[in-house]
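Changelog note: in this version the structure field was regenerated for every chain. One regenerated record is shown below for reference.
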Amino acid sequence: MEQQINMYATATGAKLVKRVNAVGAALAETKMPVSSELVLLRASQINGCGFCTDMHYKDAIAAGEDPVRLNLVAAWREATVFTEAERAALAFTEELTRIADHHRGVSDETWAEVRKHFDDEQATALTGVVALINVYNRLNVANRTPAGSYQPGQF
């Protein structure tokens, strides 16, 4: 697979990525009751974004996350290693990422689970994190950004 466009090498791409990154910086200021890396990894898996899957796995490992838990993110429903708050966040991530599949957005049941563990600020941040990773995934998938060479903290 050959990368189609290096977003950073174009004036428009550089501006776009700078502004998208600013959204990420704002979201990083909010403390959620779950690691955002789990959410970022799951959305990236769903969207088939190799670059982001590689990045968020490596960043999670660098932050001290257990590789067993990361390995089980794709099968979180059957895994016993996630908290109830993490399960709510992963369900939310899947429903918001697959929004067209449900024709109704995030279900009332999933929202109820999220609200048990996330206050208004945290639920807003969770929504933003999922929306943002979907933007990054789409940029990287569209441009065929290759995976495997990311180093933790590279960006």
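Spot check on this record: The chain has one domain: 8-143. The longest helix spans residues 120-143.
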